[in-house]
Write a structure and sequence with these properties.
By secondary structure, the protein is an all-alpha fold. The chain has one domain. The protein is built from 5 helices and no strands. The longest helix has 29 residues. The radius of gyration is 15 Å and the shape is globular.
Amino acid sequence: MTKKLQVTLYVIAAYLALFGILFVFAPGVFERMTQSTLPDAKLTLLYGVYTLIFAFVALMAAREKEAASKLSLTILIVTAGNVIVFAYVLMTGMEGFPQAGPPLIVNFILTVLLLRFRKGEARLTGRE
């Protein structure tokens, strides 16, 4: 695995862990940070746990020897899915830019980096 891909996966793990911890243990802090309201405490907790699980998967992927592993593909799907959801929420007006813009931008950057580094790794190992 290239160092760039490994660092990207560690950054994703930290990013997801931070928001997972906020959802589970400090939803009020999350609401103040994003200027949004979390209307359902049960769903917030569930989303927090889901986010923490994917943070752990990203951590496991970063520790894999094979960069194009199923774990890094899973994280690519998570970040790309987040881009689609946050873009939809922003374009339909369900949320404003302060709520949906930053996670859209962060997830888009992480998705592009993962695509680029996974593709570069596949080229190095002779798979495409």
